[in-house]
Amino acid sequence: MSTWWPARRLSAALAVATALVLALSAVGQGAAPWYAALYVAVAVFGVGSPGALPVQVVAGVSMVAGLLVAGASPLALAPLVAGVVATAELLAVTARLDAPMERPAGDLLLRAGGHAAAAGAVYAVVLGAGRLPGPSGLAAVALGSGAALVAALLLVRRTRAR
Amino acid sequence: MTDPPPSELIRRRPDPRLPAYLLAGFGALILAVAAGRAELAALGAPFVALAAAGLVRREPRNIRGEVTVRDDRVIEGDEIRGEVTLHWDGAGEIEAVLTAWRGVVAVEPTPVPGWAPEARTGPVTLPFRLRAQAWGHHELGHLWVRARAPGGLVERELKVAVAPSVRVLPGPLRLDKLLTPREPRAVAGQHLSRLRGPGTDFAELRPYQPGDRLRDVSWATSARLGEPWVAVHHPERTGTVVILLDTFFGDDRETNEALARAARAAWAVASAHLAAQDRVGLLARGRTAAWVPPGGGRRARWMIIDQLLAVGGAAEDPWRRRRGRRVVVPADALVVGITALRSRTYVQELLHHRRNGHATVALVLDTADLLPGASDAPGQAARRLWFARRQVERQVLEKGGVSTVLVPPDGSVGPAVSALRRRMGSLHVAGAGGVR
Predict the structure, then answer these.
(1) Exposed, middle or buried: residue B135 (CB in 10 Å: 0-12, 13-18, 19+)?
(2) How far is CA A20 from the centre of its chain?
(3) pLDDT tens digits, one per residue of A84-126
(4) Which CATH code is given to the segment(s) B237-430?
(5) Do B46 and A102 touch (CB under 8 A)?
(6) % helix / strand / coil in chain A, to the nearest 5?
(7) Residues of A with CB below 8 A from B57's CB?
(8) Predicted TM-score (pTM) of this structure
(9) In a domain, A82, yes or no
């Protein structure tokens, strides 16, 4: 039996709103409206079923990848990447608040926002690193991904040290 | 203070974001390699980074806890206050919940005793309040904990502690009258013996005989008759009472409530007779069995309440069953049946005691208010059948020499006991030819 605490209702509403804004932005940048609507539907489904979360993330990433392949400006898609992560994080918060006890959700919502911002930043940084003069093709991909991983590990280590 | 025992890891499960991020991240990276587009690698990088960050965070370690309650013996309806204490090393997000408790309901926190403390480091103390709902010996369940690192993507579920058990005693029902045992014993108590002797209750007047006490001379009668007459009294003695509790009940709440009423009545009768120095025994017959040989004093009191609680615990826990033992009811015992008359087997048991020569009476609990409401014709017919069957069972008992009295749904045993006393009195008078 689901328990809809006020904090859970808030995070669910934020998740759906984020998915909706993301879909509208994607349509504005050239995504197919039916695909954007499908993304919102998956996000709405994910409110009640955490198992739909991988589908939502994959659908979001596919939508952004489609825009990239179609020739949209990669840097302009950073908010969309952050939006996909924000939706997933908010859906995860909603699932986590489905507990028999009420819990404060302020820290969970803040962390969801932080993860979304970090995702947008990592995307922009890796994208920028790819444009720097240096190796191209597969080597650039490997270097960019490695740098992102190292940055994440350093971030975690600093957090733990605190 | 000793350290709580280590916790038992039940399972480890990933957050739903973990497969999502891994799938999206590595999918985008593979696509980038296949298509030779660096932008796609940039798209996958944040998801791989988030998954990695969620995995490498250090989980809280050495999680342990204990559950304590202030009172382990309470009356039905009382509040049970207690605390959960949790310890762990390192930073962590902890959720704790008490599960599988029986016979109690959560008051604070509600709807279940569960907590998600804001503190990231232990120890934490979490108070709770429960209300004892059903009498019996109840386990308060287990303390379960879900733990993860702050922002971590893997969660552990642990069974941390076993909560203590509580004894919920039946609510008090006061009796101001006692049933009269068949043959009171030669020990001073509160029952009038049919014998004559020192006492306070007047029996008869008879001519003075050598050896009579001067204080027993009735001066008014002696003056009127012109010769000395003495007043003779009944001595007060103790008796033996065996309560035969009907535990033929089902698994539904209604029959459990019927059993709870029976237990309250049994406890009321037992405690009143124990207070009157009687020897009291308890015999439970039905789905669960209990036998406490007749005894007096505090020991008997505790043994009876312990067995009653065990019967109540069995009612709340359908998996708990108890076997009967060999029972020898003393010949002089008054057998008091307490029943809702839901079983023919129990009626035969009562008649068996009567045929064995025991004085036997029955308090029949009126549980008509627990029947489901009947709005349609079949329901009303079933209700009428139920009443008719109960009436037949009562008639069978009465014909077999077992006096029965109906105890109303409000549980007022006092008037029922008074009515039984009157009926037993008339039986005594009818069969008192040999009164000495």
Answers:
(1) buried
(2) 13
(3) 999 999 999 999 888 777 777 888 899 999 999 999 988 888 8
(4) 3.40.50
(5) no
(6) 80, 0, 20
(7) 156, 159-160
(8) 0.63
(9) yes
User: Across the strands, what pairs with B73?
Assistant: B167
Is A1 within a domain?
Answer: no
A105, part of any domain: yes
Same domain membership, residue A148 and residue A106: no
Sign of the C-alpha dihedral computed for residues B339, B341, B345 and B351 taken in this order: positive
Q: What pLDDT, in 10s, does the model give residues B152-180? A: 888 888 888 888 888 887 766 555 565 66
What totals of helices (H) and strands (E) does chain B contain, helices first? Answer: 8, 22
**Structural domains counted in chain A:** 2
Question: Was domain B61-169 assigned CATH 2.60.40.680?
Answer: yes
**What are the boundaries of each domain within chain B?**
15-56, 61-169, 196-234, 237-430
A111 → chain B, closest CA residue: B151
For residue B112, which residues of chain A lie inside 8 Å, CB to CB?
100-101
Question: Tokens 């826990």 label which residue?
Answer: B317
Q: Is residue A41 part of a domain?
A: yes
Q: In what order do the strands lie in the sheet with B93-99?
A: B8-14, B154-162, B142-148, B93-99, B114-115
Average pLDDT, chain B: 79
ipTM score for this prediction:
0.87
Which domain does A74 fall in, by range? 6-131
